[in-house]
Amino acid sequence: MANKNPLDSGRRRLLMAAAGGLAAAPMARAAAGSAKPFLQLGGPSLRVAFGSCAKQSKPQPIWATIAAARPDLFLFMGDNLYADARDAATLRQRYVEFGQVEALQAFRRNTPHLAIWDDHDFGDDDVGGDYELKQLSQQLFCDEWGERPDSPRRTRSGVYEAYRIESAGRSVQILMLDLRFNRTPLVADPKLQQGYRSMVMQAKLSGKPMIGWYVPNSDPRASLLGEEQWAWLAERLAEPADLRIIGSSVQFAADGTGWECWANFPRERERLVALLAKHRAEHAVIVSGDMHYAELSKWPVPAGYPLWDLTSSGLTEVWDIPTPNSRRESQVFAEPNFGLLDIDWRGAGSVNFSIVNVEGRERLSQRVALDSLRFAAT
Ligand SMILES: [Fe+2]
Questions:
Q1: Cα three-residue angle 62-14-307, rounded to 5 degrees
Q2: Residue 21 scores a pLDDT above 50
Q3: Beta strands in the chain, from DSSP E residues, in sequence order
């Protein structure tokens, strides 16, 4: 962004973590059914935690709280560190500092995890594909997150990747998208930029939402994913899965925020909706970050099924002025937090969205039946 207690009884049994430790082991490019899973879990449920926006210069007590929630997997959803770098030495130094955040690194040693980046760890505030150090940033990201020397994340146009988890005999696909490497420049409203300081003061006094300064760009050349990533994503959505978790570093469903989100690229957002429909890719839910507050959004997609987007932000960063998100389904929680997806395979199955604060208090909880995440019969 521009600058249950979750303790449950009985830890789900971790049958296998990927070779090479607890970090990334991407799906093989073979057919989905034969691809080696990143995790294989027993038990009737699956707990996926996620979070974003952790400044390495700040204390990070939230990792102990997340560990106490005993997630099967944690998704680092971007702004995992704040590089904010315009030269190579600074970018490298920020990763050194990241490695010195012991609470975070201890959590990583003990919990299976996956990562994607957002603007601040990709490079700098709100930057996209024109960031001048993006190739170096790609290598530093891959080094930090344990990518093999021959990992495609090191050489392709972005660090997007797909993973599969086997949980109670079900297949969960996790799609970690790269919304930075190929993103074309944002379009800003200069009037909103110029009046920003006074708008912030008014919003603080009134307690009313405040729009950010970015506006939607309907130019057919405007890109968020880039064609290579779109082709890859189409292949992934054609693969079978009992649940798909789409990791998007910025909000997908939210509308009218004025800050970074898919709504700034309406053609790209509609393209993903159309791709889900084309492949009849059901049971997709979205997790996002970036906003420095947490909320749940829901997009009742015409000719589709509702797309839920649970936003958790930040692990350390907090912004207490909400935007006018027309698809908001919850309160806004401006305090350090993390998100949880609790998937229950029993019966028809459900996914529970929740937000938990740094003290372990549940702030939001919404259960959604998996049957509601399906296309109408044709
Ligand atoms: Fe961000």
A1: 65
A2: no
A3: 14-17, 39-41, 45-51, 73-76, 113-115, 161-167, 170-176, 187-188, 214-215, 243-248, 284-288, 295-299, 307-311, 337-344, 350-357, 362-369
160 in any annotated domain? yes
- Using N-to-C axis directions, what is the helix angle for 266-278 and 227-237, rounded to 10°? 30
Contacts of 215 (CB under 8 A, 6+ apart): 187, 188, 189, 258, 264
Q: Is 53 left (phi over 0), alpha (psi -120 to 50) or beta?
A: left
Q: In this model, does residue 48 exceed pLDDT 90? A: yes
pTM: 0.93
| Ligand 1 midpoint to CA 46 (Å) | 27
Crossing angle (nearest 10°) for helices 134-144 and 88-99: 20
CA of 118 to the centre of ligand 1 (A): 5
The CA 258 to ligand 1 mean position distance, Å, reads 13
- For the chain, the domain total comes to 1
Question: Torsions phi, psi of 141, nearest 5?
Answer: -60, -50
CATH number at residue 79: 3.60.21.70
User: Do 257 and 355 form a contact (C-beta atoms < 8 A)?
Assistant: no
**How many A from CA of 50 to the centre of ligand 1?**
15
Q: Which residue range is the domain that position 353 belongs to?
A: 12-372
Distance 76 CA to ligand 1 centre (A): 12
Reading the block at residue 74, the tokens are 């944690």
User: Is residue 5 included in any domain, yes or no?
Assistant: no
pLDDT per position as a tens digit, 289-334: 999 999 999 999 988 999 999 999 999 999 999 999 999 999 999 9
- Fill in the DSSP letter of residue 240: -
Cα(260) to centroid(ligand 1), Å: 8
